Every structure is written in C-alpha cells, then in structure tokens.
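Session log. Operator J.P. requested a structure for one protein chain; no other inputs attached. Running the standard single-chain path with token output.
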Amino acid sequence: MANGKMGKMLKKMQKVQAEMLKMQEELSKRTVESTSGGGAVRAVVSGSRELVGLEIDPQILQEEEAEMIQDLVISAVNEALRQADKMISSEMQKIAGMPGMPKNLF
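Structure written below.
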C-alpha cells in the first residue's frame, strides 16, 4: 500500500517536472518591457531573464550626458527584470496550484 502512494507521488512529481520544463520553454518566448526617462530608454527582457531589446531615444544621445543615460538604462533593465520575475512567478504558481502540490512551493 505504501508503494502505491509512493508511485502516485512519483507520477505527480514527474508531471510537475514536465509542466515546469514546458513552462520554461513557453516563458523564454515571452517578453516584458519597461521604460525610463519618460520613454527615452526602453528595455525588453525575455522570460528567461535575458535582455533582448534596448532602445535609446537619439535625442538624449545628442545631449552627451553619459551618466544620465547609464542611470536610465539601468533603471529600465532592472524594472524589466522585475517584471520578468513576476511573470515567471505567476506561471510557476499555476503549476504549484496543481492538486496535491504544496501551495507555497514557489
């Protein structure tokens, strides 16, 4: 009887592992974006937490204020990474909500 419960638990864990791999693949194809400086800098981050796009308004480049531009880029990238983390967490919570799985797994 104990082996039956262990077998069921093992199957659930294998299903969760397969779901997580599928989710990671799907998330890597999704993106989130953030802007800073009133839209002067835009950062796009994938669900695999990679910076995949960065746009800088040419107008701020002409002003030659490197420190300000660096701050804006850092701000936009960090916010985009936070959004990617939220997206990942939200999707992983869906997996954790499967019957028989602990609610605070992620």
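Operator note: The chain has a mean pLDDT of 82.
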